[in-house]
Design the sequence.
């Protein structure tokens, strides 16, 4: 694509990929357990979420939590504490399972029977760019009507697919200067 940024930040601009901002906002909307996994309460809440039903246990295994039932039982009873690597795998499995569980509900709220959701894109930060090299990039809004591919890539943890969908399906709706919004400070929407 001709508008894609090849060397972002070369002159001092700061920001994140718009697709990463969308993923963060979707994670925020998905909600979940606020207590960190390193605290006993957060660990137990995640373990109960991942082991409550046979379906959730299967999803946890698919998400990368591959420990024996004996180890899992010891963790739940408090007889053993997971290692740092295991804590990271538990948290990653929890986020992956949570995403899959709320994706359908979130998709319905974002699509709103074809009406879509208004998305606010806040431009990149050019405060560190030399004045002659700065360009006018204003705050923009766009109504996204088709969230299926975006939420599907987010739920699957496919960062590349999410970036591709965001860049090819949503940003061109901004008009001829859509490439200026590939990187931004934040993306906001509600569901």
Sequence:
């Amino acid at each position: 694509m001709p508008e894609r940024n090849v060397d972002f930040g070369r002159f001092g601009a700061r920001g994140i990929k718009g697709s990463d901002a969308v993923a963060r906002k979707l994670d925020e909307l998905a909600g979940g357990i606020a207590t960190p996994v390193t605290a006993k309460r957060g660990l137990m809440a995640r373990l109960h979420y991942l082991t409550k039903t046979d379906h959730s246990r299967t999803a946890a295994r698919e998400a990368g939590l591959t420990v024996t039932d004996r180890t899992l039982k010891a963790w739940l009873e408090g007889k053993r504490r997971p290692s740092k690597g295991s804590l990271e795998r538990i948290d990653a499995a929890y986020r992956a399972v949570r995403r899959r569980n709320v994706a359908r509900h979130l998709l319905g709220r974002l699509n709103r029977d074809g009406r879509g959701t208004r998305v606010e894109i806040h431009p990149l930060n050019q405060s560190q760019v030399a004045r002659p090299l700065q360009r006018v990039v204003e705050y923009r809004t766009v109504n996204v009507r088709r969230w299926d591919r975006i939420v599907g890539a987010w739920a699957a943890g496919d960062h590349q697919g999410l970036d591709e969908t965001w860049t090819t399906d949503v940003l061109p709706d901004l008009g001829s200067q859509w490439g200026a919004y590939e990187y931004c400070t934040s993306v906001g929407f509600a569901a």
In short: The chain has a mean pLDDT of 91.
